[in-house]
Amino acid sequence: MYTAIPPKKEAQINSAPSAAVLSDLCDKALDPPRTIKSPMPRKPSSQGHDTRYTKLQKNLCFACGQNNPDGMHLKFTIDEKRQMTVCRFRLDARYTGPPGHCHGGIIATILDDAMGKVNKLRHVVALTREMTVEYLKPVPLHKQLRVEGREVQVRGRTHVNVAEIVNAKGEVLARSKGIFIAIDPEQMFAKYVER
Question: Domains (ranges, CATH) in the chain?
Answer without folding.
Answer: 3-192 (3.10.129.10)
